[in-house]
């Protein structure tokens, strides 16, 4: 593998210092070999390039001659290879729709809590009746 120096042409586009910080954020990593850092950066670049190319080809990007966020999020949802990114690239929704979803979840959560309390009360009554017999 090629060694990187400040004056040499860059072989990777991503900043190695940032990649080093991300790698060191893992508690299992104590030191990082320069070759491992370079290979991680290059692999990351190739992955991002593949994701972008796939999203462009399979999205609406061809029509508009542009890659959009919705193309990326659609790829993350639909393509099995990229499904691990679905949480990172969620579909965009309007704030009003999100607020409605929160309200619905809140109502459903309150109904669920009421049901649990009634079940606990029924269980307590059943225990009291068994003890009283």
From TrEMBL:
Superkingdom as given in the UniProt entry: Eukaryota
Keyword Protease in record: no
Primary site of residence: nucleus
CDD domains attached to this UniProt entry: HFD_CHRAC1-like
UniProt subunit comment: Heterodimer with POLE3; binds to DNA. Component of the CHRAC ISWI chromatin remodeling complex at least composed of SMARCA5/SNF2H, BAZ1A/ACF1, CHRAC1 and POLE3; the complex preferentially binds DNA through the CHRAC1-POLE3 heterodimer and possesses ATP-dependent nucleosome-remodeling activity. Within the complex, the heterodimer with POLE3 interacts with SMARCA5/SNF2H; the interaction is direct and enhances nucleosome sliding activity by the SMARCA5/SNF2H and BAZ1A/ACF1 interaction. Within the complex, the heterodimer with POLE3 interacts with BAZ1A/ACF1; the interactions are direct.
Coiled coil segments of this chain: none
GO CC annotation, single: CHRAC
Keywords: Acetylation, Coiled coil, DNA-binding, Nucleotidyltransferase, Nucleus, Phosphoprotein, Transferase
SUPFAM superfamilies noted in UniProt: Histone-fold
Role noted for this protein: Forms a complex with DNA polymerase epsilon subunit POLE3 and binds naked DNA, which is then incorporated into chromatin, aided by the nucleosome remodeling activity of ISWI/SNF2H and ACF1. Does not enhance nucleosome sliding activity of the ACF-5 ISWI chromatin remodeling complex.
Protein's name in the database: Chromatin accessibility complex protein 1
The keyword Hydrolase is assigned to this record: no
Annotated InterPro entries: CBFA_NFYB_domain (IPR003958), Histone-fold (IPR009072), Transcr_DNA_Rep_Reg (IPR050568)
Transcription factor CBF/NF-Y/archaeal histone domain: residues covered: 13-74
Location in or out of the cell: Nucleus
Gene name per UniProt: Chrac1
Native source organism of the sequence: Haliaeetus albicilla
Pfam families: CBFD_NFYB_HMF
């Amino acid at each position: 593998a090629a060694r990187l120096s400040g004056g040499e042409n860059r072989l990777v586009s991503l900043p190695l210092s940032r990649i080093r910080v991300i790698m060191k954020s893992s508690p299992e990593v104590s030191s990082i070999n320069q070759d491992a850092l370079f290979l991680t950066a290059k692999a990351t670049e190739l992955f991002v390039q593949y994701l972008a190319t796939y999203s462009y080809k399979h999205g609406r990007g061809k029509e508009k001659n542009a890659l959009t966020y919705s193309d990326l999020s659609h790829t993350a949802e639909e393509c099995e290879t990229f499904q691990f990114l679905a949480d990172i690239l969620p579909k965009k929704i309007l704030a009003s729709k999100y607020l409605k979803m929160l309200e619905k979840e809140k109502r459903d959560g309150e109904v669920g809590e009421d049901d649990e309390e009634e079940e606990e009360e029924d269980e307590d009554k059943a225990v009291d009746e068994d003890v009283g017999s």
